[in-house]
Amino acid sequence: MCGIVGYVGPRDSQDILVSGLARLEYRGYDSAGIAVIDDGGSLAVRKRSGKLARLREALETDPIGRGTTGIGHTRWATHGGPTDQNAHPHLADDDRLAVIHNGIIENFASLRSELVGEGITFVSDTDTEVAAHLLARAYRESGDLVAAFRAVVDRLEGAFTLLAAHEDHPGLVVGARRNSPLVIGLGEGETFLGSDVAAFVEHTRRALAVGQDEIVAIRPGVVEVTDFAGNAVEPQPFEVSWDAAAADKGGWSSFMAKEVSEEPEAVANTVRGRIQDGEIRVPELEGLDDFFRGIDRVVVLACGTAYYSGLVGKYALEKWARIPVDVELAHEFRYREPIVSESTLVVSISQSGETMDTLMAVKEAARLGAKTLSICNTQGSTIPRESDAVVYTHAGPEVAVASTKAFVAQITALYLLALHVGRVRRSLPDEVSADATEQLAALPEKIQWILDNEQERTEQLAHWMADTRSVLFLGRHVGYPIALEGALKLKEISYIHAEGFAAGELKHGPIALIEPGQPVFVVVPSPRGSITMHQKVISNIEEIRARGARIIAIAEQGDSAVLPSADEVLRIPLASPLFEPLLAVVPLHIFAMGLATAKGLDVDQPRNLAKSVTVE
Ligand code: M6R
C-alpha cells in the first residue's frame, strides 16, 4: 500500500518520479504527490487527491522548474481521508524538508501530542506528518539528514518506509525501512529508490534490496546503507528478471485483461527449468531435502487469493507428499498462539512478497522455530528475505489489483513443491509422478484453449448479467477453493454480492439463499475422476435448480450428464482431477472481468483497494 519513488542523478527528476508513480499506482490511488529540489535550490511540492492524472494536470498548470533530486508518492489512505492536504509529501522545517511514507506509525497520537506541546502546528490528519516534524527537529540539531533518521527511527512504532529530501542537500535522498518495502535501483551516475522495482525498471534492472531496519542514503551513482545503529551494511544485489515492457498494458483494454491472457505463460514459466528427465526437480528446495524427510506437518499462510491457492495446494501436498496440511489466513494465525515446532514447514504464499499480515505471520512462525518457505512472485521483496527458502513463481509483474495469473502460478508452485517433497519422502509412486509431470507440462496449452474458445461466450454471459445483484459459486474438493476465488474476484471488481460455498455445505444453511432466478456457478468435477463426486455435484445442482436457481456449470468437454441440469455450460479441457482447478478458474476470472467491464467499472483499480496490502 502506497507507492514510493526517489531519484538523484543528472536528469530532470520530475518525469522520472511521475512515470515511476504511474507504474506504482496499483499500490494505492487515493492521491499522489512529488517534491523536487529545483535547480534554484528550492523545494517545490505538488500534490493532489484522486488518481495520478490529477497530479499530472496540476503539474501542467503549475509546473515545477528543473530539478535533479526528488521524491514521489501515491497513497492508499490510512490516517486521514484522501484530500489534497493529507496527500504526501508532508513538509516540515519551514517547508524545506519533504517526507513521504508507506506504513502506519502506530504511536503517532502520543508523538503528535508531544510535538503539539512544543508548539508545532499540524496541517494534515496523517501519521506521516509526525515523522516529518520529528525528522526536522533532529535535523536542526545535527544538520545531518542521515543522523536525523537515526535519531528518529527508534521513536516510531509500527511499519514504515520513509523517504526525505531537504533543501539544504540537493543530490541526496535518505530513506529508512521497518516492516515496509524499499529497493534501490542503480543507474549510470543516477540512483533510484522504490517500493518495488517497478518504480525504476524502465531505467535500470540492477537493484539492491534494503534489509529490515536499515537506513539508505542515495546520491548520484552512490549508495550508502547502514543499520539503525549506524553500522555499514552490504545490501544484497539482484537483477530484475523482467523489463519495463512486461509491466506495460500493451494493446490491452486493462492490465487485468492482459494478465488473464498471460495465465498460460505464467504456468509455463513457473514450471520451466523445474522438470529434469521427466521428473520434478526444484533446485531451490534441494537444501531442505533432509528436513522434508522428517517433517510432521505443513502450515500454509496467506491472504486473499493467495490463501485460496493454498487451499488447492493442500489437496496435492496431502495426496502426493502424505503430510498433514493446515491452511491458515495469515492474520488469524499470528494472534492465536499457534502451535508449530522445529519439524513444521511453514509455507507462505504471496504475489507481492510484502503483505504485512503474511510477513508478520512468517516472522512469528520463524520465532517459534518452524522452517519457513516462501512462494512469491516478486524479487527483492521482504517475505522471501525473511524465509529460509523461496520458490519464485515466474508470472511476471502483476499490476491489476485483482490477482489472476499469480493465482495459477501459485498453485503450480505448490504442485511443484508437493511433487518434489513426495519424491524425496518416497511417498509418490513413479507412475503418479510421471502423470502429474505430464499434466503440469500440458496445462498452458489447455488454459490457452479456454481463452481461445470460451472467453467470448463467457464475456457475453457477463454482459447479459450486468444487472445481477448476487451470484453464488459452488464447488467440491479442489473445486471448492475455486468457488471461493470466483466469488472474491466478482466482489472485488464488480461490487456485487458474491459467495462461494462447498457444494456439500449447501443444505446446512446456504440453500436458504436460493430463490427463483438466483445465478449459481457450479464447478463440476470430471466424471472420469471420482464418479461419486461428479454425481453428488449433479445432485447438488438439481437441489438448487428445483428451487429456481439459474445454473452456470463449468464442466469438462464431453461431460453430457451436466447438460439437462444446467442453463449454461462453460467448457474446460480434460485434465486429471487435481489439475482441474487451474482450468476451472479461468472462466471465473474472465466472468468477473467481463461483468465489471459491462458495469463500466475500473477493473484494474477497484474502489477502496490496493494491490499490495502493507498494513495490518
Ligand atoms: O500479494 P499477496 O499475494 O500477498 O496478496 C494477497 C491478497 O491481498 C491478494 O491476493 C488479494 O486478495 C487480491 N486483490 C485478490 O484478487
TrEMBL record:
GO cellular component, one term: cytosol
Record CDD domains: GFAT (cd00714), SIS_GlmS_GlmD_1 (cd05008), SIS_GlmS_GlmD_2 (cd05009)
Key words, A-Z: Aminotransferase, Cytoplasm, Glutamine amidotransferase, Repeat, Transferase
Keyword Repeat: yes
Catalytic activity: D-fructose 6-phosphate + L-glutamine = D-glucosamine 6-phosphate + L-glutamate
Enzyme class: transferase
Domain Glutamine amidotransferase type-2 residues, every copy: 2-221
GO MF term set: carbohydrate derivative binding; glutamine-fructose-6-phosphate transaminase (isomerizing) activity
Domain (SIS) ranges: 288-427, 461-606
Entry EC number(s): 2.6.1.16
Record's subcellular location: Cytoplasm
Any GO BP annotation: carbohydrate metabolic process
Database matches in InterPro entries: GATase_2_dom, GFAT, GFAT_N, GlmS/AgaS_SIS, GlmS/FrlB_SIS, Ntn_hydrolases_N, SIS_dom, SIS_dom_sf
Record SUPFAM superfamilies: N-terminal nucleophile aminohydrolases (Ntn hydrolases), SIS domain
Active site feature: 2 (nucleophile), 611 (for fru-6p isomerization activity)
Pfam families: GATase_6, SIS
PANTHER family referenced in this protein's UniProt entry, alphabetically: GLUCOSAMINE--FRUCTOSE-6-PHOSPHATE AMINOTRANSFERASE, ISOMERIZING (PTHR10937), GLUTAMINE--FRUCTOSE-6-PHOSPHATE TRANSAMINASE (ISOMERIZING) (PTHR10937:SF0)
Function: Catalyzes the first step in hexosamine metabolism, converting fructose-6P into glucosamine-6P using glutamine as a nitrogen source.
Protein name: Glutamine--fructose-6-phosphate aminotransferase [isomerizing]
